[in-house]
Amino acid sequence: MSKYTTGEIAKLCGVSVRTVQYYDSRNILVPSELSEGGRRLYSEQDLKRMKIICFLRDAGISINNIGELLSEDDPGSVISVLLEQQEQALREEVSERQEKLAILDGIKKELRGIDNFSVESIGDIAYAMENKKNMQKLHAILLITGIPLGIIQWTSIVLWITMGIWWPFAAYWFVAIPYAVWVSNFYFKRVVYICPQCHEVFKPNFKEAFWARHTPTLRKLTCTCCGYHGFCVETYGKEEKENG
Known about the structure:
By secondary structure, the chain is of the alpha+beta class. It has nine helices and six strands.
């Protein structure tokens, strides 16, 4: 039967000699025998055990858990639980890293639109990104509520053009105008703006915000804090409460 020294078993398993010695000190991989000179000698069974240890370590299972697992009379019933726990932990870690990558990607995209970068700019980006999900939900509400109205509009136009029936289009405006008033108030009560000059968060008056030039993420406004007039970053804010 083959016998392996510490160096040989380390080489066969792709680890360092110090790792093998460490496993011995933890009583996880104890050599089958010692030579007359006191050298550790490992058997074929020890080699198999070492490969199992390496496999479990590569899977991310801790040394403590491996030691407990290998000391069990029936390790098969325990290893499936350990692997499931490790799988869950790794999935959570992957999810966290993906979120961090998304944050970094978002910061890089936002930085491309900043002419005069400063430390405060990072704070502006962070504030906007923290509220990004809320903004997406807000836009989704507007889209969902607007779809039925769009269907009514185009149906009434088709009826007018193809059949000469004009009254559905006229009736449409009795629905469209109140909806436009409601959706504008609903939207602007829930959004705020970040001034690129003083980096303060402010809420403009409704009339200015409604008529201002804008893109999906920017609106040309006058900052109520410093008086800057230009494109400001639109983000989600706390809902404005009615007075009284």
